[in-house]
């Protein structure tokens, strides 16, 4: 069994496409509940590298997408997913294909395509990262200098990256498959430059390359609220107290009826409809970033307000004195979500090496609305 449609890339509507959100779905008709968001808002005029791979199993399709902004010079892929669609499997028989629009000449994409490739198997992220590196010409200039009985190697390094020193006595084979030399692997970056001193090899000839890679992400904080909300605090900053942050199963007139991924718990601006003239804050526990060089906040959000006078924002506070570490980051409340959406925000540079508290603030106008407001779930802080 299978659905007759798969949309690897779609640009947000209405038709003709005019939105700036890029989504992807495989194995079911295109609807918000069946899609993964690759980009919340792309920049017109920029070239992007976009890739994806999917598998079908047990009547469902699971796919993962990858994205990088080529115009900004991004050389590392951002992974989106995996995302599982339980509505069906993509057909495994010949089927019409459309590039730049649907195969029946509908739903045109108002952009340009180049360097298109298809593969007949599920591919890991490393393959797409290799493709991106070849596309942008990413390479590391390794400098070697003999110093008496030593060999000094140096290269420009990047924050958060790791490095392997690979070597061979000839130039045969792919350098990425050369053996690691003298167990010099998983080397930590010391930006802007790494320097390594080794014994001068005795071989008549020996070649070296530096391999750069992104280590597995370090998670500094993670919660889906199913085990409770230890350390979280809710603040009411107004006089009427018509709204408060509540943890539980959302049950407003509109909006979500479960947490993200059909979970039981989420934070909401009232579990029912939110009230007028409200100003409320939700603060996380203290998050230790003493070992971090940079980090990112991601969380699931369901926006269901009046789209007019209600506002929301994320603030990053130093835990020791609640000092605001940067300008607050607005959450676009003129968006009407039809499903849970992931928002990602880089943490301010001053948060690295310290402890922080993250605050979500919601302000409603003076109108009485039958909406759920703002709901939050699945909070992650990682590098």
Summarize the structure.
The chain is mainly β and 383 residues long.
Notes on the structure:
This protein has one helix and 24 strands. With 383 residues, it is mainly β. It folds into three domains: 6-136; 143-213; 219-382, Jelly Rolls (Sandwich). The strands form six sheets. Strands 13, 15, 16, 19, 22 and 24 form a six-stranded antiparallel β-sheet that branches. Strands 14, 17, 18, 20, 21 and 23 form a six-stranded antiparallel β-sheet that branches. Strand 5 and strand 6 form a beta hairpin. The protein is globular and about 80 Å long.
Tally of extended strands?
24
Determine the mean pLDDT.
86
CATH class of the largest domain reads Mainly Beta
Compute the gyration radius: what is it? 25 Å
CATH architecture of the largest domain: Sandwich
Number of helices: 1
CATH topology of the largest domain: Jelly Rolls
Low-pLDDT residue intervals, each spanning 5 or more residues? none
Helix content: under 10%
Globally, the shape reads: globular
What is the structural class?
mainly beta
End-to-end span in angstroms? 40 Å
> Per DSSP, what share of the residues sits in E-state strands of 2 or more residues?
35-45%
Total tally of structural domains = 3
Series of secondary-structure elements, N-terminal to C-terminal: EEEEEEHEEEEEEEEEEEEEEEEEE
**Major sheet summary line:** 6 strands, antiparallel
